[in-house]
Amino acid sequence: MEEIKKVRVRYAPSPTGYLHIGGARSALFNYLYAKKYHGDFVFRIEDTDIERNIEGAEYSQLHDLIWLGIIPDESIEKPNPKYAPYRQMEKLALYQKYAHELVEKGYAYECYCTEEELAEMKENQYANGIKAFKYNRHCLNLTNEEKEKYIKEGRKPVIRLKMEKGVTFKFHDLVRGDVSFLSDDIGDFVILKSNGIPTYNFAVVIDDHIMDITHVLRGEEHLSNTPKQLQIYKYFGWEPPKFGHMTIIVNENGKKLSKRDNNILQFMSQYRDLGYLPEAIFNFLFLLGYTSSDSKEFFTKEEAIENFDPSRLSSSPSMFDNKKLKYINSTYIKHLDDEKYFEFILPFIKKSAKAKDFDENLLKEIALIYKNEIAYGEEITSLLDEILDYDKNQLTDEEKEFLNLDSSKLAISKFKEKVISLKSFDKDSVKELFLSVQKETSLKGKNLYMPIRLKLTKMSHGIEMHNILKILGMEEILKRIDL
Ligand code: GLU
Predict the structure, then answer these.
(1) Where are the domains of the chain?
(2) Which residues line ligand 1 (CB under 6 A)?
(3) Could you confirm whether 259 is annotated as catalytic?
(4) Of 59, 51, 47, which is closest to residue 19 (Cα–Cα)?
(5) In this predicted model, what pLDDT tens digit does every residue of 149-203 receive, in sequence order?
(6) Centre of ligand 1 from the C-alpha of residue 118, in Å
(7) pLDDT digits over 130-151, tens only?
(8) pTM here?
């Protein structure tokens, strides 16, 4: 009987950048897999590409995930002693030991070729019509004398894996079904660099094996790495995990999402700073690459775990739909209870230069005015700036003409006369005020309201009149009317 192993999955970022959409999505599906099958979700760091590592990336990768509610069971900050360390650069000796074991068994060999020699080899192959470079095995059978000669010249060897000939690597991909690769298409690749640091393809196998990883869900860009990794598993006699390669994310024009695409924000921290809610992003990422069994759009974390089924991971590219993200986020904002909403929104209101000194009650009233209007937190800052920073707004020529009509002037002067004695800016009192202006001027509809809206905000549309009055306050209303 086959032993049933505890599900263990991982998210293994390289700290070469902050947590971005693609990474967060990979982490999310691994997390769901773990939680659905009562397993562990492991966060570890693949930091062997030392020149590309950047300051703060590791922190962002972990803490932006935690912010999203994708909480690792084990990580660099929560290590399980059985599996630690969780950073590759902290266990170089281990990879070196395994690499040498393969050399001893004849599955790998030292290669002394220099960069220049390799470049020349590549050029020759290209000239002969071979586009995908494959190492020519120059160093496969070096004698000890030859090796010593190279060492005397000051050369330091790398270790290359000796790919088998005539083998087909087959596996059942959780997303795309049966996949196969021919070993003959793959050259002998480097597993340990001359500085003793392993390459990704080697270190990832050692880690996945010693950390008892059972399933690997990762981006499609790693599909062609899988046969290389399978060869290593085969040489060690280890059972590989089950693989699933998720499809790419594309923009609205069907182009692969690129870090340089300015229309789409790439990093989770940008969404957080703009006032997206972690639950909404979690929900959005869940739909990005997954087709739920009904057409349901809203999922709590618990529902996503419950609903998750790896066979429903989509096998065609997923489109990043900005409008949908806004729609989902605005819906989550609408559903926040008022206390949570205030906590979330007040910092954004206070970012509006002129609103920041309002008293707490007015701030809360303003917050509620916009609760159903905004897609994300920072929108309230700009909407308030629009109303409060009057000098910035410009009337169009048409609007100026309209304000110059006798009827507009009449509406404004009557409004001024009446508003002075207004006791409250609640909806009914303001309605009453306009009814009396209407009665005394015989103006109605656009001719009654628009002059006042334009005069007070220099904008022809926006929130309801009583809310404009409430936000401005009497002093500011009278000032603007007289301008
Ligand atoms: N460090 C790799 C990356 O960031 C992880 C690849 C894998 O999941 O095997 O793409």
Answers:
(1) 1-75+247-335, 91-246, 337-384, 393-481
(2) 12-14, 46, 204, 218, 222
(3) yes
(4) 59
(5) 999 999 999 999 999 999 999 999 999 999 999 999 999 999 999 999 999 999 9
(6) 26
(7) 988 999 999 999 999 999 999 9
(8) 0.92
